[in-house]
Amino acid sequence: MRFVSWNVNGLRAVAKKGFDDIFAEFDADIFALQETKLQEGQIEFDLPHHCDYWSYAEKKGYSGTAVFSKREPLQVVHGLGIAELDTEGRIVACEFPEFWFVDVYTPNAQNGLARIDHRMAWDDAFRGFCKGLEAGIVPDGAEASSPKPVVMCGDFNVAHNEIDLKNPSSNRGNAGFSDEERGKFTELLDAGFTDTFRSLYPDREGIYSWWSYRFNARANNAGWRIDYFLVSDSVADKIEAASIHNEVFGSDHCPVSLEISF
Q1: Lower Cβ count inside 10 Å, N or C end of the chain?
Q2: Which residues are catalytic?
Q3: Contacts of 149 (CB under 8 A, 6+ apart)
């Protein structure tokens, strides 16, 4: 199966920049989006071979996630099940017979780590949510499930290690590269998940998924790797390919992909 994830930073804008062609070229079994920045009914796609599932933020023009799938899932969950964390449309989780697919747009800690407490609460809750899905535990209101592996993807808003961003020294302690955020990502991996790209390319440098719009960052490849596919350790040996498609434009992020056999 081929999975693709892309933070589009505004789907209505990317729709005017060739999104349909990019979507078709990938021909993904599941295509996940983050930061759609829209409400229900604000955009229409003609995707006859895919089912579509959306989570919207209460705040207009903010956050939001979506999943397009060739297969109809058994069920879809649109939040962590924690009211104060579920107002921004940051989760679409789809259950299939073989696995759970989780699309996430992790909150940004913001300048000066102004939102770090919220971010830490999110990271803990998200880790618990994914481990629960692995064990067959679902949020209240969802249908009963059975234990199965998890494939998660999205913009995790953290560069895990120094190799994952161009300028680690000058960014240490900033949002996205603070000790707190990096530590929570380590906890997520230690809980039993594999960073698919880094598992295949442990020493590869200069490969990023996000570049600031400032300072010609993308032209200079002064980027960060903050978009990931993670899988349960139990299926890590089934990874066939993990790629970062920095040749694709339209957003300040580029798509990332995973090919895996179940």
Answers
A1: C
A2: 105, 155
A3: 98, 99, 100, 134, 231, 232, 234, 235
